[in-house]
Structures are given as C-alpha cells and as structure tokens.
From TrEMBL:
<protein>
    <recommendedName>
        <fullName>G domain-containing protein</fullName>
    </recommendedName>
</protein>
<dbReference type="Pfam" id="PF01926">
    <property type="entry name" value="MMR_HSR1"/>
</dbReference>
<dbReference type="InterPro" id="IPR027417">
    <property type="entry name" value="P-loop_NTPase"/>
</dbReference>
<feature type="domain" description="G">
    <location>
        <begin position="1"/>
        <end position="59"/>
    </location>
</feature>
<feature type="coiled-coil region">
    <location>
        <begin position="200"/>
        <end position="273"/>
    </location>
</feature>
<dbReference type="InterPro" id="IPR006073">
    <property type="entry name" value="GTP-bd"/>
</dbReference>
<keyword id="KW-0175">Coiled coil</keyword>
<dbReference type="GO" id="GO:0005525">
    <property type="term" value="F:GTP binding"/>
</dbReference>
C-alpha cells in the first residue's frame, strides 16, 4: 500500500513476472486491485498491489471500499496475509496533507495488533543524496511513523534492485505468521460496513473536517464580500451626501445672489423714483414762479 507513484507496482513487477503498467505521468495507473505470484525462498507468494488514496479518477471513499472489500473477501475465503508493505517516496521533501492522510488510513486499516507484520518502506533512494534521504528517513521515523514503529512496525529502504525487494518480502515470509488486519476483522467478524470501520470513520472525519473548512472559507469570503459591499455603499452614500451638500450650498449661493440683485434693483428703483419726484417738484415750483398776472382788456 501507499500513495500514488510510490513504486508499489514497480515493486510487484520486480518480484514477479507481471508486467503491470507503471505510471510515469501525472495520472494514476493502478485503478484496481492487482495480484501477481512469485516464489521466494521456495515458497509461492501472492503479491497484492493496491491503488493509492490520492487516485486521479476515484474518490478516497471508492478506494477504501475497493481495498477493504478485497481484504474482507480474502479473509472470508480463508486467505490470510503474511505481511504488509507501506511505500513512501524518499524524494518527497515534505509530508503533505495527502501523504499524511494515506499514512493515517493505512494505520487504521491495519490496526495495532497487525503492526508487527508491517514494514514501512522508503523508495527512490537513487534520486536523492544519501545524507538528504537519511535526514528525511529520521524525520519520518520521529514524526510520522513513530506510533506504528512503537507498536512493532519496522523501516526498510527499497533500493533499485530485485535483490533489495526480495530481501524485504523474504523477511516477512520467513516469519510464517498469518496476520488479520483490523479492517478484515471489523467487516467479517463484527459485521460492520466499510464506512463503520476505524478506517472508514477516520476517512469520514477527514472529509467532514474538509467540508467544515470549506464552509468556513466560504463564510469568510461571504463576510469579506459583504464587508466590501457595505464599505462601498458607505463610500457611495458619503459621496452622494457630499454632492447633495455641495448642490445645496450652490443653490443657497445662487439664492443669496438673486436676493442681493433684487435688493439692489429695489434700491435703484427707489432712488430713481425719489429723483423723479424731486425733479417734478422742482419743475412745478419753477412754473409757478414764472407764471405772471392775468390782464383782461
């Protein structure tokens, strides 16, 4: 088991005569459970190749159901596992969310009692300097695989050779210790559905947390959009208010100007009327003074 591109199919091909398609592009190649036979130390060994939980086309729930159903059917048919290999690329410079999710689901699939039959394998050592790979190996052991190692799992390096792969599988075969995974017991012995198993609950928890994170992000985006919209409305309202006040001030100035002009006009008319009255009075007085006595002959 392991994430897409970790080298699971390549390992199976090296150990057997299988010629399963290996993915070198960005999309997953292993879409279904694949099995191949080989002989190690004179014993016939059945190798089971599984797709990763970061599959290109299938959801994590589909992958879990595929793997759990196959394991449960094998257990129900009396076919017991001898060991489990978990593969991880040593070329990964960090353990991201997808890789970490793969590890946690794998741990839940196996269960504590099966850890002694688990080998945690690091692959692609030829693509990194020794000291870089060794540092990442220590970090995996201390930070990500610590619980599984504490419960009996071991770590091994898968080198780019058939001999290396054979030695790792041989170490499990030599134990001659059948193992039952937690997911097999839960489905077959306890009658649980796949989603009710520890792995299924953990996967659902991951999905629920992802859903809640998405909803929280959507709510934050909505609130931010609402804040920006309200801020824009306030800005527009303030701008309109400024325009209204400016318009009212302009109207007031124009009204005042008209009032002043009207007052000036009234004053001018009064002055002219007064002047006219004065002139008329002077004319009347002049006429009376110049009027002589009337003589009748």
């Amino acid at each position: 088991m392991g994430p897409t591109g970790a080298g699971k199919t390549t390992l199976v091909n090296k150990l057997s005569n299988a010629n399963f398609k290996v993915g070198y592009g960005l999309e997953s190649e292993t879409q279904h459970i694949q099995t191949a036979q080989c002989h190690i130390n004179g014993q016939q060994v059945l190798l089971i190749d599984t797709p990763g939980f970061d599959d290109t086309d299938k959801s994590d729930t589909d992958i879990l159901n595929l793997i759990a159903t196959h394991l449960a059917n094998s257990y129900r048919a009396g076919c017991r596992l001898t060991g489990i290999l978990y593969l991880h690329r040593i070329t990964d410079n960090r353990v991201g969310g997808v890789s970490y999710k793969n590890m946690k689901i794998f741990e839940k699939l196996c269960g504590d009692s099966a850890m002694a039959s688990v080998i945690l394998c690091t692959t692609m050592w030829g693509q990194v300097p020794e000291h870089v790979g060794a540092q990442r190996e220590r970090e995996l052991a201390a930070n990500f695989w610590r619980n599984m190692i504490a419960k009996g799992a071991t770590m091994r390096r898968v080198l780019d050779s058939q001999e290396s792969a054979t030695q790792i599988v041989s170490s499990l075969v030599s134990l001659r210790r059948p193992v039952t995974l937690a997911v097999q017991s839960e489905i077959v012995d306890q009658g649980k559905s796949v989603l009710d198993t520890a792995a299924g609950r953990d996967l659902n928890r991951e999905k629920e947390e992802a859903r809640l994170r998405m909803e929280a992000e959507i709510e934050r985006a909505r609130q931010e959009a609402q804040r920006q919209m309200e801020e824009e409305q306030r800005r527009i309202q303030a701008q309109l208010e400024q325009q209204r006040l400016a318009h009212e001030a302009q109207l007031a100035r124009e009204a005042e100007q008209r009032r002043i002009e009207e007052a000036n006009r009234q004053a001018e008319m009064t002055r002219l009327q007064q002047h006219l009255a004065t002139v008329q009075a002077q004319v009347h007085h002049h006429r009376r003074r110049n009027r002589g006595p009337c003589v009748v002959q």
